[in-house]
């Protein structure tokens, strides 16, 4: 009997209480941790935007999650098989009784991981054709405006401007960006797309050439130029682009997507424009050669003209035959005019001889007869056409009346069918409402019965009593009651006050197993819930 009482007085935990207690213990003991491992099971962001995967090493694996907002701000995105160092908070997931790490930051585990990530990204972008030579554009020979994407405070922009001033001064537009750190890749891509978005002939001139430049640094410092967003922006640029990132030995992915790669920013300025002094010397030489060629051509044409002039006949020889032909034609013109006049006179005389009064009267009578016949035919045609129109309109009137009657009957039938359907739907709605009310009433009755069955007052009704101290806290053992302590006893039909007997015999200790004594020692730490029964809803 004492062993049974000890088991009854042991604290009881619900599954949710135990899971919450474990969650608090894990989070308090491991607030923030850094974990090194290989990403496995990553299939990209979930439809909700969150990322779920696992970190593993040779002998263990831990689940990991990255929330949507954190994933959008990450500089390095998780990839399958990449070894990383993750920083986050360790917690538990009560839904599946497992622990996991909520990652807040992630970084590759050393240079080797960065090189592996770079090679993987290079293969992916090359497979899409972003590095093909056919996509690359020719650089303009002498650009009017040069756009530079770089840091405004570094030595790179000063080297570029100084080199352009020495070779061939041009107008330079600088788009200031961060060249390393958080958000630098987005700024560089936005600058490239911003230069391409400038309209032709706008207030701000559109550059003829772009230079993306940065000084030397480590692989981590130059990583912004390996980001996919920067490489895609460089490949999509409609303005020819020169990549001048790092020193000659530094290789970034933007070098493969750019139209031209320069080993240094100074070399990029040399590629952009020619040397002005050399151009002036070359232009002067070309001008001298042009004048010499022009003089030689003029002399050759002059000699050709002299030779052609010597071969041409004289003016009198060229006009002799035309003058003779004109004299012959002018002498024959009067005779031709007289003959033409006599021929027209004879034709008019013959025509006038045939025009007598009898012929004219006959022609008038024929014309009058034709006019009378045509008028009669026109009247007959008008009467026939009018009769056809009347018959057609009569037929259309009959068809319209029949169509109106059939349409009206069809509308009445449709209204009757809709009224019948409405009545059926109303009857179904009344029956459905009655069934729904019955189900809700049965559910409420069942919930009341369940509430009564789960209430602790049912235990009191079977003859048990609940003992509380003066503060209203329940007492689980006789050892917790001192002599003369005020007690509060609750029965099924009410409560009474009582005082503990000071002369009670000492409690007989009962042997207990070591495993059973541990829950009793942990009992005072349990947070006691209020006795009143809570609502199940």
Describe it.
This protein is α/β, with parallel strands linked by helices and 537 residues long. Among the domains are: 31-109, Nucleic acid-binding proteins (OB fold (Dihydrolipoamide Acetyltransferase, E2P), Beta Barrel); 140-274, Succinyl-CoA synthetase domains (Rossmann fold, 3-Layer(aba) Sandwich); 368-446; 460-525, no CATH class. It is built from 14 helices and 13 strands. The strands form three sheets. A five-stranded mixed beta barrel has the order 1-2-3-5-4. A five-stranded parallel β-sheet has the order 7-6-8-9-10, with helices on both faces. Strands 11-12-13 form a three-stranded antiparallel β-sheet, with no helix packed on it. Helix 5 (155-167) runs parallel beside helix 9 and helix 6 packs parallel to helix 7 (228-236). 14% of the residues are buried. Mean pLDDT is 83; it is low at 506-537.
């Amino acid at each position: 009997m004492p062993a049974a009482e000890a088991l009854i007085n042991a604290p009881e935990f619900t599954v949710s209480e135990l899971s919450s207690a474990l969650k608090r213990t894990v989070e308090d003991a491991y607030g923030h941790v850094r974990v090194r491992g290989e990403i496995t099971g990553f299939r990209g962001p979930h439809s909700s935007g969150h990322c779920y995967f696992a970190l593993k090493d040779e002998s263990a694996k831990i689940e990991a999650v990255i929330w949507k907002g954190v994933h959008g701000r990450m500089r390095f995105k998780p990839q399958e098989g990449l070894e990383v160092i993750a920083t986050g908070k360790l917690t538990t997931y009560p839904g599946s009784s497992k622990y996991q790490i909520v990652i807040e930051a992630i970084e590759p585990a050393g240079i080797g991981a960065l090189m592996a990530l770079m090679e993987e990204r290079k293969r992916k972008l090359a497979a899409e054709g972003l590095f093909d030579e056919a996509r690359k554009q020719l650089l303009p020979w002498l650009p009017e405006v040069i756009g530079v994407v770089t840091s405004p405070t570094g030595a790179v922009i000063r080297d570029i401007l100084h080199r352009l001033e020495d070779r061939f001064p041009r107008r330079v537009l600088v788009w200031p960006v961060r060249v390393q750190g958080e958000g630098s890749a987005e700024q560089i891509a936005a600058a490239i797309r911003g230069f391409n978005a400038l309209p032709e002939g706008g207030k701000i001139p559109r550059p003829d050439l772009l230079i993306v430049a940065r000084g030397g640094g480590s692989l981590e410092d130059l990583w912004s130029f390996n980001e996919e967003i920067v490489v895609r922006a460089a490949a999509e640029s409609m303005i020819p682009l020169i990549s001048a990132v790092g020193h000659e030995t530094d290789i970034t992915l933007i070098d493969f997507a750019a139209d031209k790669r320069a080993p240094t920013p100074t070399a990029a300025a040399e590629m952009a424009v020619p040397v002005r002094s050399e151009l002036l010397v070359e232009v002067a030489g070309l001008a001298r050669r042009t004048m010499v060629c022009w003089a030689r051509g003029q002399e050759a044409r002059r000699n050709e003209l002299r030779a052609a002039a010597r071969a041409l006949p004289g003016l009198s020889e060229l006009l002799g035959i035309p003058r003779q032909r004109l004299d012959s034609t002018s002498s024959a013109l009067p005779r031709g005019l007289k003959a033409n006049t006599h021929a027209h006179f004879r034709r008019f005389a013959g025509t006038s001889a045939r025009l007598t009064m009898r012929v004219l009267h006959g022609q008038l009578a024929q014309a009058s007869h034709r006019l009378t016949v045509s008028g009669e035919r026109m009247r007959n045609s008008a009467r026939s056409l009018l009769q056809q129109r009347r018959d057609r309109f009569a037929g259309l009137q009959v068809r319209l009346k029949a169509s109106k009657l059939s349409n009206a009957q069809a509308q009445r039938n449709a209204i009757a069918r809709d009224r019948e359907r409405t009545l059926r739907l109303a009857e179904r709605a009344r029956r459905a409402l009655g069934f729904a009310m019955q189900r809700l009433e049965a559910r409420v009755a069942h919930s009341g019965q369940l509430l009564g069955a789960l209430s602790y007052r049912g235990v009191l009704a079977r003859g048990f009593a609940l003992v509380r101290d003066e503060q209203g806290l329940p007492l689980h053992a006789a050892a917790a009651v001192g002599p003369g302590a005020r007690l509060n006893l609750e029965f099924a039909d009410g409560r009474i006050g009582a005082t503990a007997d000071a002369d009670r015999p000492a409690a007989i200790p009962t042997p207990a197993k070591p495993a059973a004594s541990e829950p009793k020692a942990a009992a005072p730490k349990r947070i006691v819930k209020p006795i009143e029964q809570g609502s199940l809803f």
